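Standup notes
- HV: blocked on the assembly model, inputs below
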Amino acid sequence: MTSTLKKPRHKKALLMPLFFVEGQVAVGVELIGQVVSMWFKTMGYIIRGDFDKKEAWRQSYMIGVKSFTVVAITALCTGFAMSLQISRELVLFGADTAIGGVVSLALVREIGPITAGVMVAGRVGSSVAAELATMVITEQIDALKVMRVDPIRFLVVPRYIAGLTMTLVLSVYAMAIGLLAGIYIASIAANLPAATFLDSVHQTILDRDFVTHFIKSEINATIIVMFSCAIGLHTRGGAEDVGIATTRTIVWTMTLIFVFNYIVTSLTYAPR
Amino acid sequence: MAMPPMLEIVNLQKSFGNREILKGISFKVYKGEMLGLIGPSGCGKSTILKLICDLLTPDGGEVIRWSDEIGLVFQGSALLNSYTVRENLALALNQRKLKKSDENKIIDDKLKLVGLAGYADAYPSQLSGGQQKRTSFARAIVNDPKIILYDEPTTGLDPVMSTVIEDYMLELSGQLDAASIVVTHQYSTWTRCASRILLMHAGKAVWEGSAEEAVVTENPYMKQFAHATREGPMLSGLL
């Protein structure tokens, strides 16, 4: 009797990771479905111009203006560290006039969008998910539906518009701060004048780099707003589930920001 | 009653996963009437309100409404915290595309009706629990609904504030001549406000009658509920 009971338990234990993976895949597919459906509805409202402009302004302030300090600090530190490393190596090879070009390439193509994206995901994505999840739990979303106010039009569309505009602004801002940090470090570590640094930037950066920067920023904004809203609006339960929704948002948005960053980079810069 | 009902629930069924919440409940609510939907926690009372408002889809049965103008007062008020009282009420008027001056007039009138004139620019966090509840009332009636649903409107309030809220419910019911349903556990609320009582147990209606009859009936379910005793069929299988 004992042995017949033990066998299935043992088998089940072995299969547990498979059940776990299967469950996670199902949850992930469901979430992606919710995000895609929400994105189409959101775009429908945006194309028709049917959204609350005042709320979009308010969200722009919440998402953008309130992120300026934190983005500035991270971009400044990243710019300092990167310029220090690059200056040190290029001076060794006598290529110090190329410092500006290399620093700016990294900033425009990768660091700017990534820094802004990660900071907005951490600061805004989590707060949007927590806010919407709380609204679900406290029946505020039900109240909107009873008043025939579509939560997507009312809550998601203004956040998406604000996210699209402010993430781009923050990316450019992070890039500019990083460049300033680069100029400062290059002048100290390599004794490079700002004019030489900027001349190198001018010669290295192409229009295509700015287009890539723009695309990455907008993809980041879409990932952050759509996933945080979808996770928040589909939360059920209580206070613990708000915490779970916040964590899920961070994990999904951060991971996807890096995944899509690589996809865009590989599509744009891979040798053909 | 000879007049047609404003709301008719026909053999309504609803399950969440394997849990059967409503097992085919039917009732009617007439204009000017307030139906008290009472019963132990988890018997499906609030689920009925959500099905009436299309917040949930029934697995079986039907909700027949003779008006789409429905106001719902939520248990926890459910006001939007980042919006002022006026903005919360304005949301409910959104569909009507009114002029700002007309909109403000309606909002001021409704706030006056619930004793909150002068609070239009306050945020929900600046209001007391009773004031939030009354704001929720004002929001529910801002479109002069023909059907008003109250989900445990006096839960968590002190006895005096409960009486105030019950008085508002009676006043609004009289003024709007609407068909109302109040879901409640609170004895004073269903005995004072409801013109008819429907007792639910395990997803079914087990007794129906007036509030006066409810306290004297020998029906074992109603007797146990009205007298709040342990003896009776309601706790079987739960303890």
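- HV (later): unblocked. The mean pLDDT of chain B is 89. The interface with chain A takes residues 50, 53-55, 70-72, 74-76, 78-81, 91-92, 94-95, 139 of chain B (CB under 8 Å).
- Next: hand off to the docking folks.
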